[in-house]
Amino acid sequence: MTASPNPLTVTITGAAGQIGYSLLPLLASGSVFGRHQPLNLHLLEIEPAKKALSGVVLELEDLASPILKSIVPTTEAVEAFTNCDVAILVGAFPRRPGMTRRDLLSKNIPIFSSHARILEKVAAPDVAILVVGNPANTNALVLSRAAPKLNPRRITALTRLDHNRAVAAVARELSVSVSDVSGVAVWGNHSSTQYPDVTRARVDGKPVLDRLGGHDGVAGQLVPSVQKRGGAVLDRRGATSAMSAAAAIADHLRSWLVGDDADGKHVSMAVPSDGSYGVKEGVWFSFPVRCPGGGEYEIVQSVEFDEFMQRYIDATKEELFAEREEALTLLD
Ligand code: NAD
Ligand code: LMR
Predict the structure, then answer these.
(1) Between the chain's N and C termini, which has fewer beta carbons within 10 Å?
(2) CATH number assigned to the domain comprising residue 318
(3) Is 42 labeled as catalytic in the residue annotation?
């Protein structure tokens, strides 16, 4: 996507929530779509958050951003999604204590299917959609089922936060700069079954598995620490990740829609499965992808699975197909 003199219309749902609060300044500063790309921001909230949203708008105005051409706060999804080029779907029903994934799904299916039907009708025809609200992979599937006219390749879900966590964890472990780390990828679901593959990590192009303690070392430490990182943040902050989630949303959109991986590194993104690596069609699965920019992506095809990796992939695949079954039952 090259900067256009025409404003890009970006819709953020759940805009008055904690991720919205960290994401909006990144958008307004131009660090996502560029400092010369004018933006219209459409901010969707539910009625109880209307007053809080109006406060967020005051702050957005006070940023005095030269690229913000208009700000539309609304509680009407049709108004929010009309002509939108990019939809960032953050708004979701929050997980409450004691809720199972199925409970969470049943609360979120009505939200994502209703947003899907509206997006299909009123958004720009090639709208790019990023699903953030949890369970993100399965919400993306629900969205696609409810809006069959939307191109599934334009619907992605966020696993870049997990990717960034894994890269940063390797860098910390080896006391190197994150920019020297490559080869890391996150596979599967944005949940504790995800497989953050650090076994292929390289530093300055050289394999570092031995320095990370070999397969046993990563299975005992790095993999579970990345899988459980969201829980660790929740435990300490008393709230789920927001600053790092917003930064990951910015990274995801920049890679996917602008294209910033010219250095040859891949990134991780949940995209519709196409049979690659034995993951049958029908779920949004996180793979390593390369993004040339402009909304295209290619799943990296050259990864060879060993038994160690296959076990993790099978577990996260099984969870995603089980979530799919539950979602389809609830959708009927
Ligand atoms: P939050 O509760 O602070 O904000 C969510 C906002 O969404 C609230 O302001 C709420 O009023 C709004 N909302 C609820 N239903 C809505 C609807 N139907 N339409 C529009 N807005 C609606 O939560 P948060 O910390 O901003 O997190 C939002 C979501 O992102 C959660 O589901 C969370 O689990 C998820 N999350 C995902 C990742 C990821 O990596 N995929 C990371 C962190 C958080
Ligand atoms: C995270 O990874 O930090 C979040 O997805 C956790 C959550 O349940 O919101």
Answers:
(1) C
(2) 3.90.110.10
(3) no
